Amino acid sequence: xxxxxxxxxxxxxxxxxxxxxxxxxxxxxxxxxxxxxxxxxxxxxxxxxxxxxxxxxxxxxxxxxxxxxxxxxxxxxxxxxxxxxxxxxxxxxxxxxxxxxxxxxxxxxxxxxxxxxxxxxxxxxxxxxxxxxxxxxxxxxxxxxxxxxxxxxxxxxxxxxxxxxxxxxxxxxxxxxxxxxxxxxxxxxxxxxxxxxxxxxxxxxxxxxxxxxxxxxxxxxxxxxxxxxxxxxxxxxxxxxxxxxxxxxxxxxxxxxxxxxxxxxxxxxxxxxxxxxxxxxxxxxxxxxxxxxxxxxxxxxxxxxxxxxxxxxxxxxxxxxxxxxxxxxxxxxxxxxxxxxxxxxxxxxxxxxxxxxx
Length: 358
Known about the structure:
It is a single chain. With 358 residues, the chain is α+β, with helices and mostly antiparallel strands. The chain has three domains: 3-50 and 281-355, conserved putative lor/sdh protein from methanococcus maripaludis s2 fold, CATH 2.40.420.20; 53-63 and 194-278, Elongation Factor Tu (Ef-tu), domain 3 (Beta Barrel), CATH 2.40.30; 68-189, CATH 2.40.50.100. The chain has three helices and 20 strands. It has helices spanning 3-26, 99-127, 133-158, and strands spanning 39-44, 52-69, 74-78, 86-87, 92-96, 161-163, 168-173, 180-181, 186-202, 216-222, 225-237, 248-254, 267-274, 284-287, 292-293, 299-305, 310-322, 325-330, 337-339, 353-355. The strands form three sheets. Strands 1, 14, 15, 16, 17, 18, 19 and 20 form an eight-stranded mixed β-sheet that branches. It has a six-stranded antiparallel beta barrel with strand order 2-9-12-11-10-13. β16 (299-305) and β17 form a beta hairpin. α2 runs antiparallel to α3 (133-158).
């Protein structure tokens, strides 16, 4: 049995001993004999569905972080962005001197007109059989090449403007105005903030939960205001653990709050609640206070028979601890009643009277 279970069991035992001692002081007729225990607390197995609620330290992040650059070379003449500013999709981020690219487009358009006139003239000659068909085909190929050259020149001209591909947060300027830039030189670093992401690291025993995202409810608690929360939606999870701490990263998404200065990189608290349906139908859990320790270190339960009004001792095997409850692997089945208080004063076959609460 792991240290966590032993510690939790020890705390529950001390609490029960304190309660029994207090009762004995209030009523001198009570003793530690078997007849002293006239009433006990019971729990019907299977009535309380197991559940998981865990808190994690998370990190806010953008959908992506990218360095934007021009696809063509040129002199940077305009860089209107300021670091830390949020800009909508399509906003101008930077601009190159487009003079040379405008001239290239004009030249391509002139050649296209020449090629079109050449094709028209040769089609007229073909009607009178003055030239062979092959000459016309070659002229049409030249026309198509001229059309492609115009398209390329228009595209290169459009590349002189660098615009926001989505709603972006300007992280850093990476170039200075009036400098000559080669194609692909980073100009500005931006973060895609169409939504925010929250990353948490979970231990391996909780990774199975993310395979059922429909049964998971997660929320983000705002810094310095845990009464206000933001609902989270599952996005993805890593299938390879961290090499050092052996945890798996799980990512949730949420809409960027407009009235809160929440930025990528900030630390937040994420609460994850798992639906009880994630558990097998036959899985049971029981209060830690129901466990009793034998001389050999094993655990046992006292099971109450309502028909006879007496208790029976059962050996028990347990699994994982969750709060003040523990997974019950064997010892009792769903529907049976187990004693959750006063177990240290019971003996086999003792008649007791159950009650539901203190």
